[in-house]
Amino acid sequence: MPDGNTDATEMNWMTRRRLLGAGGAAAVGMLAGCGGGDTTTQADSNGTPTETDTGGGDTGEETETSEQGDPADPTLSFAQWPNPNSSNYNPYNTKNFPKPRRFMFDRFMYFNLASGEYEGYAVSDWEWDGNTISLTVRDGLTWQTGQSVTADDLLAQLELDMYTGGTLKNYLAEDIQESVQKIDDKTVELRLSDVNTSIAMGLLQPKHIYTPYTLDGASYDGFGRFVERYHDATTDDERSAVTNELTSKWTITPDDDPVGAGPFQFEDADSQRTLLTKYEDHPDADQFNYPELEYRYSPSNQKRWQMLQNGVTDGYDTLFMPENQLKKLPDNVVVGTIPRHYGMGLIPNWENKHLGKRKVRQAFAYAIRRQLVARNSGGGTGTKAGVNVPSGITSQLTGDVKEWLGDDYDKFEKYQYDTEKAATLMREAGYSKSGGMWRDSDGNKISMDLKVTSAFSDWVSADQTIVSLLQDFGIDANLITESSSTYWGKSYVNSDFDMATQSWTDYGRRYPFFHQSWMLNSNDATSYWNVPETVEVPPYGQPNAEPEEVNPLPKLQKLSSATGDQAAQLVKELAWIINQSLPAIPMMEKQAQTFMTTDDWNVPAKDSDKLQTYWPNEWLPRRGDWTAKLE
Predict the structure, then answer these.
(1) What is the pTM of this model?
(2) What is the rounded CA–CA span in Å between residue 188 and residue 95?
């Protein structure tokens, strides 16, 4: 089992109390944890930044700055996907939910991937007592109307997350209302069933406090009314009506002057940008020596490339940029990389009459050169790696798969490129090849459309390679690119595809449970990919034996609370189910690129451990590690 996922190590991380000045410089490098939708990843770095010039531009700076003078640039500039005018700040109605939220609201906790521990932020302190965790709101944290952030607000956040489908509800000891209890004005107690604390903390850490229970002095009411309506609901229809209003009907638009509790507050929005101004009453306001922050409208990767190349923006959290575009960046742009525990997969529609067959999915896996797909998708950056063993286990680049599978590693199918094996599987599935094309028993060609959003240029490059390889194998494959709204809003969610493009991982997390659950039991898997409740796989370690029907859900449920050797064995058994059934065909895993500029800004070196978080442009400023140069 990999370091950092052992029972002893994780229990040590989860049970210590931490209250470290929430974001102060003294806390840097001492505590961290699961970030950005993210569980634990560890590295061997000692945390010492280097200043070595790699020839690829400025490496960043690790120097103290003078407190005298005016900022060389008073506005830190990033980019956002939705049009600022039509952005929506209701976190439960996520259509057009914009990135300015990352400075308008604070996450529960901070995580640094290199050190692998937690540090308090909006939730400054927590303590486990068996399966109960108490969470305490940070002192001095206020909504931008001036009222304090309280336990009521934290309770609303936790309850509404679960009422609207959040995964934490699967681990409650009782129903939602009974399991979330206000203890005092600052503390909420969350009562869980028997759950692995690494899973619970991985679900808690990336949350923000978005939800003022009441909101005095604002143009809209707080979220407490929805909590109370859920409490009062006695039927599924009544609860569904509340959910529908909260997630579909209610919006908080720029015209409503959205209110947050983060270090920057909403000022204005037009068709080109969202402007935020510093909220002086935030506990970390002194970490920011510039008064404004803006997000410019940029609805495609290509526009983001141009903004960085032309000095319009000062950085970006995570953006794929191929080598030919990296060469166009000015020398003042720092490009770092972050382990993503995320990667593109080929998604078969299990209701397709061909792809519903296990041997056809396996044949496709053998017919595709995953390393070539990753290389072409990476555009010369070396940030993508082909998946070696489809198993629902990430960290291909650091050897986690071998560590988790241990002595059983060689029993798992690697699906290395082999068209002869692919052909054998197709014939065993009842197909024949004539005229260079695979055909069914009626002589019809096997035709497949592969759909992808045009917004993700690296996915398009990957899919072009996949389609070409399938065509070479004898499949009548065709690539269809669609706008983001059409792909995600219609084709994908309505299962209107033969093959689709989506992550095979529950991104940002290292612990295998999250990815294995995503592939076998997520809403995406069961509702969009149409993975059935039971799948056919041969007995563990016997790939040539007769397949049998297996329901993976009981194993997932056990893994959610298991530790030590029991957890390790369950991970392997679930890896076997994925390896043999291929609910999705994992293609690659990526290193995320992150961008900062140094012309007007003091930022860490690109290989500094300070960058190892989800995301640097969100956390570095809060911790005083992204400051304006002074004139």
Answers:
(1) 0.80
(2) 29
- d(CA 551, CA 541) in angstroms, rounded, equals 17
pLDDT for res 60: 56
Q: Which residues of 71-83 are buried (b: 16+ CB within 10 A; e: fewer)?
A: bebebbbbbbbbb
Residues 548 and 537: beta-carbon distance below 8 Å: yes
In this structure, are strands 292-297 and 75-80 parallel, antiparallel, or unpaired? Answer: parallel
Q: What does DSSP assign to residue 262?
A: S
- Mark whether 273 and 237 lie in a shared domain: no
Tell me the residue type at 376.
Answer: N
d(CA 142, CA 124): 14
End-to-end CA distance of the chain: 52
Contacts with 375 (C-beta within 8 Å, 6 or more apart), sequence order: 384, 386
CB 208 within 8 A of CB 188: no
Domain shared by 309 and 354, yes or no? no
Q: What percent of the chain has pLDDT over 70?
A: 89
* Token duo for residue 492: 């994908």
Of 215, 580, 592, 119, residue with least CA distance to 378:
592
Domain of residue 188: give its range: 106-247
Sequence-ordered strand ranges (E) for 252-386: 264-269, 273-278, 292-297, 315-316, 333-339, 344-348, 384-386
Mean pLDDT of 294-308: 95
DSSP-derived 3-state class of residue 481: strand
Same domain, 313 and 414: no
